[in-house]
Automatic annotation (TrEMBL):
Belongs to the peptidase M50B family. It is found in: Membrane. GO terms for molecular function: metalloendopeptidase activity. The keyword Chloroplast does not apply. The lineage of its organism: Bacteria, Bacillati, Actinomycetota, Actinomycetes, Actinomycetales. The keyword Thylakoid does not apply. Keywords: Hydrolase, Membrane, Metalloprotease, Protease, Transmembrane, Transmembrane helix, Zinc. This is Peptidase, M50 domain protein. One of its GO terms (cellular component) is membrane. InterPro entries: Pept_M50_Zn (IPR004387), Peptidase_M50 (IPR008915).
């Protein structure tokens, strides 16, 4: 295994002979169908084999605190884009759930089941090409996921539709605008805006939110990311 082997490669239209030396690496044992072989405990079996190639590795690169505002701005921009294109993303998610297209992570639409799966992946210490995922990386990944989730909920809650807080904010803003216009025209105070008249709209919005949540749960199960 430690003896170099001559390998002929083709690069830029020309053949070259290079010398490579295989290294011993733990590789997964697979059956004739290509499926991993497990032992009596259910763990995937590995064995030392000569290996030549490229394997992924884990690592961290320190970043300057000056990059934090840019990362936050990028996260906010992605959240706003996901909310603005929510109907389109939900449409493609349903198409993926029906098996009519491949689900894409770029849609930004994920349900409760999908978030739970992402959290499990973030905190998992499963084996990779570079070994076990370090605890520091798992903690940082989970914190980033929690921060992204809170940011998404914050932005979605500000959508100016009842029963979200954004609907009440919109009512308060409209009330202030009416008073400013009345004051500029020398008219009496028109009084507060009766948001109770929007209760039917809020009920419809609440029903749509429930339907969307149930649909995304189904999509996360039928076509997981």
């Amino acid at each position: 295994m430690e003896q170099p082997t001559q390998v002929v490669i083709e690069r830029d239209g020309a053949t070259r002979t290079v010398s490579v030396t295989a290294v011993e690496a733990q590789r997964t044992v697979r059956d004739s169908q290509g499926a991993p072989v497990k032992d009596a405990t259910g763990a995937v079996r590995t064995e030392a084999r000569p290996y030549v190639g490229i394997a992924p590795s884990l690592g961290t690169i320190p970043q300057s605190p000056a990059k934090i505002p840019g990362l936050i701005a990028q996260a906010v921009g992605g959240t706003v884009k996901a909310i603005a294109t929510l109907p389109v993303g939900l449409y493609h998610a349903v198409q993926a759930g029906l098996g009519m297209e491949q689900r894409s992570a770029d849609s930004g639409v994920v349900g409760l089941v999908g978030m739970g799966r992402m959290a499990g992946q973030a905190t998992s210490g499963g084996a990779t090409g570079g070994g076990q995922v370090p605890l520091s990386m798992r903690v940082s990944s989970m914190l980033v996921l929690l921060g992204s989730l809170n940011l998404a909920l914050f932005a979605f809650n500000l959508v100016p539709l009842l029963p979200l807080d954004g609907g009440h904010v919109a009512g308060a803003c409209w009330e202030g605008i009416r008073r400013m216009i009345a004051k500029a025209q020398g008219k009496p105070d028109p009084g507060p805006v009766d948001t109770a008249k929007m209760i039917p709209v809020g009920q419809v919005g609440f029903g749509l939110l429930i339907v969307m949540a149930l649909v995304l749960v189904w999509v996360d199960i039928a076509a997981p990311l």
